[in-house]
């Protein structure tokens, strides 16, 4: 995540700006999970600051990584069920772009 916003000309092929996305029905659940993840990250920061035992810090990093992966997989599942399915129904270049976009996202998740 770069933290920069893209203008229309710079967007990835197939990017869309529907009023709602697949995850919108679970938005509150995602926000709750992300708030918990923020707390975990602050806790790890505190552990390092307090010079706690490295294995304990690594254990917490592993838990944080798993939590982030859970959010990512949930978002990917929602994306496939909504955005990709809708694009596949439309067919053509839009479908091809959404499928490539999803494949690229999966590849990034597998590498991390």
TrEMBL record:
CDD domains: CsoR-like_DUF156. One of its GO terms (molecular function) is DNA-binding transcription repressor activity. It holds the Pfam family Trns_repr_metal. It is found in: Cytoplasm. One of its GO terms (cellular component) is protein-DNA complex. Keywords: Copper, Cytoplasm, DNA-binding, Metal-binding, Repressor, Transcription, Transcription regulation. Residues 1-21 are annotated as: Disordered. It comes from the Bacteria. Transmembrane segments: none annotated. Belongs to the CsoR family. This is Metal-sensing transcriptional repressor. It comes from Georgenia subflava.
């Amino acid at each position: 995540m770069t933290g920069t916003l893209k203008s229309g000309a710079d967007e990835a092929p197939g990017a869309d700006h529907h009023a709602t996305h697949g995850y919108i029905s679970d938005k509150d659940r995602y926000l709750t999970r992300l708030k918990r993840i923020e707390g975990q990250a602050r806790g790890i920061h505190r552990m390092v600051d307090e010079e706690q035992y490295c294995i304990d810090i690594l254990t917490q990093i592993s838990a944080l990584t798993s939590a982030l992966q859970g959010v990512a997989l949930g978002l990917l599942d929602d994306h496939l069920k909504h955005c990709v399915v809708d694009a596949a129904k439309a067919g053509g270049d839009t479908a091809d772009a959404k499928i490539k976009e999803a494949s690229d996202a999966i590849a990034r998740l597998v590498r991390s």
